[in-house]
Amino acid sequence: MYLIETIIFSALMASINYLYYPLSFLFIGDAANPYQILSICMSVRYGSMKGFFSFLIIIASGLTAGAACGNINKIFDNDTYYLVFSILLTSHIAGQIKDHQDYQYNNLKNSHEKLSSEFEKYALNCLMLEDANKELTKKIVTRFQSLSTVYEAAKKLETLEYEKLFPAVLQILESHINIKSSAIYLKEGEQLILKSSAGKNPESFERRVAVSSDRLFSSALKIKKTLSLLDNILLADSILSKEDFEKYVIVSPLIFNDQIYGIIAVKELPFDNFNDTSVRMVSMIAEWAGMCLNKINNFTQIESEVPLDNKLKCYKPDHLKQLIKSELYKAMRYRLELSICKITIKNHDIIPENNKTSVYFSIGYIIKNSIREIDIYGACMQSGCFIIILPVTDIKGANILLSRLIPEINNFKIMPGGDNEELHFEAEAHSLFEAISEEEIQMIPFERLNEESNNMYKKIISNIKI
Known about the structure:
Layout: H1 2-20, H2 34-46, H3 48-68, H4 78-143, H5 147-156, H6 162-177, E1 181-188, E2 191-199, E3 208-210, H7 215-223, E4 227-228, H8 229-234, E5 250-256, E6 259-268, H9 276-305, E7 308-309, E8 314-315, H10 317-334, E9 338-345, H11 356-368, E10 376-380, E11 385-391, H12 395-411, E12 425-431, H13 432-435, H14 438-442, H15 449-464
Antiparallel strand pairs: 1-2, 1-6, 2-3, 4-5, 5-6, 7-8, 9-11, 9-12, 10-11
Helix pairs in contact: 1-2, 1-3, 2-3, 2-4, 3-4, 5-9, 6-9, 10-15
């Protein structure tokens, strides 16, 4: 390929030399020599070795053109020797720089592949250790069947995610009390919603139960204590009848600080294991689960108030909107330029759910290293886009940023699904002074500035569609 390029461009320059500048032998004396520029470009593009062969072809074509113009007597002049040596030297230096760059790139690539291989090996070791840890934990739990070991196991299983908490609670019930069928319901208004079930026939549990329609559930939530068929049999003054325990033998509310979160319902357990100790253990696990639910709710509330996304290390969409509104107001008040850029992943639906965080973090890292310290950016994974706020920047500056940023992201060739399908991006930029002129802003009274700023905010938000 490099030979074809060299021959074509050399022939073109030789033709120009022959037809239009017959008296200028090899363009000697010109400030910018075309033959030298072409030789340097080929060396920069293909390296020193191929650059040398290109140099030979270029010089040969130039000398041929000179000879055809009748300047053959100038071939052995000192100026000719100086030009040829100058072209050779500069081309060689450019080629050496290219070779060094390729060498460094290959070293970096090999290091990356080595690190990736080691990471996969460590990840496999981590999975093996986790499996071994689970087996060891199971052996420890099954060895010590007592209230104290249940409590310790429950404390170790605390988590800040609903999806992990509910199965963990049901697993403790199954492994320590030998419960054959159980479920957890969360209270939403006057409804109990099934969140997790375990044991035999988990699909037999109702997905949604009205509190008022189930006397057993409503009674447990009302008195805020565990109810069981065993208490109903032993206590003469029980508020429930045997018919109320037709579906469940133990029901324990999930409560913390008088706040009712839901209920644990036990449908089946062995007869020889249905005793007062089992009821107390279910009550204790329900109390622990209520404490964990309270922690999760508090954590979720605190996390929602934090402006930065802890996983992506950038602003969340809601806080990003507030920042846009704030920056708009400042820009309108002090007559400053302001631009807002949006980078959209056109095929973001191909990103696997378990890989989404790492993909967005990688793109966000590229953006972070491409913008200034005063610039602000955030991500919206639901709509598959990134928003960049550029204070004191006009639309021209915003477009310059995007023209650099999009190729930079594309260079990484992100393939989240592992099926050779790359992500595709599109970008758009909006400027404050596109929507309203500086003269119009100056005409706005100060008392109406906030109102006009809010109107402009709504307009921009509708355009970028966060």
